[in-house]
Amino acid sequence: MDVPYKIYLSEDQMPRAWYNLRADMKNKPAPLLNPATGKPMTKQELCGVFCEELVEQELNDSTPYYSIPQAIRDFYRMYRPSPLVRAYCLEEKLQTPAHIYYKYEGNNSSGSHKLNSAIAQAYYAKAQGLKGVTTETGAGQWGTALSMACSYLGLDCQVYMVKVSYEQKPFRREIMRTFGASVTPSPSDTTQVGRAILEANPDTTGSLGCAISEAVEAALSQPGYRYVLGSVLNQVLLHQSVIGLEAKTALDLYRIKPDLIIGCAGGGSNLGGLIAPFMGEKLRGESDCRFIAVEPASCPSLTRGVFAYDFADTGRVCPLARMYTLGSGFIPAPNHAGGLRYHGMSPILSQLYHDGYLEARAVEQRAVFQAAEYFARVEGILPAPESAHAIRAAIDEALVCRQTGEAKNILFGLTGTGYFDMVAYQRFHDGEMTDSVPSDEELAASLASLPRL
Amino acid sequence: MDVPYKIYLSEDQMPRAWYNLRADMKNKPAPLLNPATGKPMTKQELCGVFCEELVEQELNDSTPYYSIPQAIRDFYRMYRPSPLVRAYCLEEKLQTPAHIYYKYEGNNSSGSHKLNSAIAQAYYAKAQGLKGVTTETGAGQWGTALSMACSYLGLDCQVYMVKVSYEQKPFRREIMRTFGASVTPSPSDTTQVGRAILEANPDTTGSLGCAISEAVEAALSQPGYRYVLGSVLNQVLLHQSVIGLEAKTALDLYRIKPDLIIGCAGGGSNLGGLIAPFMGEKLRGESDCRFIAVEPASCPSLTRGVFAYDFADTGRVCPLARMYTLGSGFIPAPNHAGGLRYHGMSPILSQLYHDGYLEARAVEQRAVFQAAEYFARVEGILPAPESAHAIRAAIDEALVCRQTGEAKNILFGLTGTGYFDMVAYQRFHDGEMTDSVPSDEELAASLASLPRL
What we know:
Structural class of chain A: alpha/beta
Strand order of the largest sheet of chain A: 1-4-5-15-10-11-14
Strand content of chain A: 15-25%
Mean pLDDT of chain A: 94
Number of strands of chain A: 15
Shape of chain A: globular
Distance between the termini of chain A: 57 Å
Low-confidence stretches of chain A: none
Radius of gyration of chain A: 20 Å
Helix content of chain A: 40-55%
Oligomer: homodimer
């Protein structure tokens, strides 16, 4: 059966349930801890910050499937199923025997996969009768997705945006405004934690960790508000499993077994969602597929971090999570373009990496933009810098296949589009882009601040 | 049979031939005239400016179908078939009994339908052994599409971009550069005609008419180059018929007959392509579908222009076309956002309008952006300002149905995305956007310059 350029599922073939990978993990991700007591966060404690149903999803590591509410499935049908693309043009250009597939999540106005969890989180907030939600955003993809979802459901949406992205991507603010959200560059003087961070480091360009602290404080200080997060958390990976489930259904239609699955990894939302059902097979001993997390060399939590309990945020107002981390005070160099700026990594992915089920590699940003431009010219899609990390690794692996002659099936996640990243593309074209790799001393200093339990 | 949110055809169901609407027109569009002789342009004369195969397509008004070359069909498969969307959410929000459908052409990195003709024109240029092509672009969509197509085929691409768009959309230049094109703001001092226009009007913000003059001169002055155009011409409408053919196949699958088809109209490429097979049925007496062209009140060629021979460009270096025109010297007010800035209209659409087969209406831009924002929030797609003209009219017609209780089938063309139009969205949000309607005196003055034959 010939594989078409794009495999589209019918709406009937879309998943009716999210898959909870934790149910198949022998070593479960460690629980979140209350930093004051050192004990696992209770459901009640978490419900002060998060929506109730989401807390249930966060804590439940045994139920394998969660039925997707009809309203969320209806929203999904506005932009899903997303295409699984066979990269025939890229294969030909690379002269590789590998078969390359990518699951493309950029065909919606938020421009990325983030919408999959945004609508779920907004739905549960609305169902709980809340007035609004607060959040952080790095590159702006999550903030845009959440503002779309909130606008659809009539919820207020307050976004703290990492300052360097706010400045590099002036139009991101405007698209969030189109969807009715308010956007504040972070760190800001609108929160106590923001003022403290600014006082300690007035020139900081911000980080996801800072913005999370501010958004959490904003949620706690307004009645009828909760905080929502676009990555890292177990609940987010649960929602994002829709990516992997669709990809698996599409591949199964053509009896294709992936040998290698590649995704970019910042907090882990895309990678965790993409690999979920395939990793489930591996954990159950039904597959020997390999999985590669690709992270920026400027923020290498898996490849150079440590596996330890750490704060999820810079301001240390959030619970502790056991994860690969660079230290909650780590702030990547401002010359780094785009997202993937988070100091930690999803506890689920951290555990899988620790247990040897997941590989990781770090790539430098000029190599990433070379791959991005190459891909745009060959496949006709302008990728987000984040997504281009996965493209870089997929191209590298396809070139290995050219050497070895292996016709491997490579699947990677193309998480989104780069329309709001043209400043970074311009720097790349003008030869002004530099790589940025933290020194060992820098990392050691940052890791010295890990909490002692 | 329930209609899904999105009807995707399989790749096998994609058209294998373009449809040439002229074959079904009793009153054919008038031939292009040589301004020096007043006689129809010969094939030989046109081949100095355009590629040979495209000249054949331009002149042929009797062959109903043109087989689409395999290489173009392969390229189409990178981003086509495009979805036909049932706007369930919009219908519900409007509380209308109308069924609203839109053919969405924004799911490719050029962000619009323009790629359909760009790849065709680049293909024939390559097949003829040319080194490169020159063109103009207004809002930047055509230039982006052509640079993508040229990059794919390894052709040089030189783009003259209307100055006001070049300044309003700094990132458009960068995306064209990502695809390897060179971009010059027009009018420029790189051509004789550009220098003359600048001398006469140093503060001009440019127009498509100016940029066309410059691009034609650039093609004529470089060996191995030809000029290509993104709209107006018969050949472009031929290529764009792929939009309408796909839409018709998708609707036929569900036995849906549109009552009303709506498209925005600048030069006419999208509207002409979208309506082609449906208009063919009407011309053959097989349907009584209505067709509405929606144009900006700031550049109202159908609703306030005259049907006459006029120059296709401001610099008067191009052939004369018989079309609805505001005069080749007409330049829309600079506060007008986006494309649709052309003084004339496709000769095919002009003839259909003249003969009563096509209706037209003009809309003001604040009403257009209201519709754009409304649509974005409800349907989750951020539309281009051009596309939002059609959305405005579709919403208005759906509201009429709410009054009359009629369950009409309304189809409109959603030509592209607004990611590069955030400056205009920002002006709208900040209350700084104004409408701009030329006065009768302005139009009379512009029309006084029509050539006398």
